[in-house]
Design a protein that fits this description.
Number of helices: 2
Helix content: 10-25%
Bound molecules: N-[(3-hydroxypyridin-2-yl)carbonyl]glycine, fe (iii) ion
CATH superfamily: Alpha-ketoglutarate-dependent dioxygenase AlkB-like
Oligomer: single chain
Strand content: 25-35%
Number of domains: 1
Strand order of the largest sheet: 1-2-11-8-13-6-3
């Protein structure tokens, strides 16, 4: 079953676990298309700061595209087919998002990945994401593909329990992380962003997470 010789990490491919790979710069050729698509999504479903079930307003601003979108409010986390702000369906999944995700997943050993949801996170300096698991998706057999754009972030890569050590992984413009399999429910988070403006995007970072939610 294991064929490690096929997936030997190279400088561009850093293994983070049995089911998780960091693909440095994998999204760079896609950047103009990705940014245009983010702008189009944002014009239909603007970024907003969601409230957690515990009553905290998140420092990361979020929007979605695809058949399903991830939202949070006082009642809990859920995927919805419509944007609760407008009542309209989330903007369609841009073709470039789905193709990039499928290609990255295939390189990481997950052939045939077809996302139906993309959560788009926007970080300004100081924004952070506390340790969490992604577990609102129906089926954990599909991986998640995560694309970083703009300012650098320090990603916290923990274990299967909230307590315990986290690896600090720098994520830069164009980096893609694919994770699934035995790593699908790993705890992870993002440290508060430092203000180190990016040449193209200035003082912001976008993160796309492409999922099979439904
Ligand atoms: C971020 N990412 O990088 C936050 N979740 O801004 C996530 O929470 C995440 O990168 C699941 C899979 C990949 C991720
Ligand atoms: Fe997550």
């Amino acid at each position: 079953m294991e064929t490690p010789e096929l997936f030997e990490p190279t400088e561009r491919e850093q293994r983070l676990g049995p089911g998780a790979v960091l693909l440095r710069g994998f999204a760079l050729p896609w950047v103009p298309e990705l940014l245009a698509a983010i702008a189009a999504v944002e014009s239909a479903s603007p970024f907003r700061h969601l409230v957690t079930p515990g009553g905290f307003t998140m420092s990361v601003a979020m929007t979605n595209c695809g058949a399903l979108g991830w939202t949070s409010d006082r009642l809990g986390y859920q995927y919805t087919a419509t944007d609760p702000e407008s009542g309209a369906p989330w903007p369609a999944m841009p073709a470039a998002f789905a193709r990039l995700a499928s290609e990255a997943a295939a390189v990481a050993g997950f052939a045939g990945f077809a996302p139906d949801a993309c959560l788009i996170n926007r970080y300004l300096p100081g924004a952070r994401l506390s340790l969490h698991q992604d577990r609102n998706e129906r089926d954990y057999s599909a991986p998640i593909v995560s694309v970083s754009l703009g300012m650098r972030a320090t990603f916290l890569w923990g274990g299967l329990a909230r307590s315990g050590p986290s690896l600090k992984v720098p994520l830069r413009h164009g980096d893609v992380v694919v994770w699934g399999g035995a790593d699908r429910l790993r705890y992870h988070g993002v440290q508060p962003l430092k203000d180190e403006p990016h040449a193209l995007l200035g003082s912001q970072r976008f993160n796309l997470t492409l999922r099979k939610a439904g």
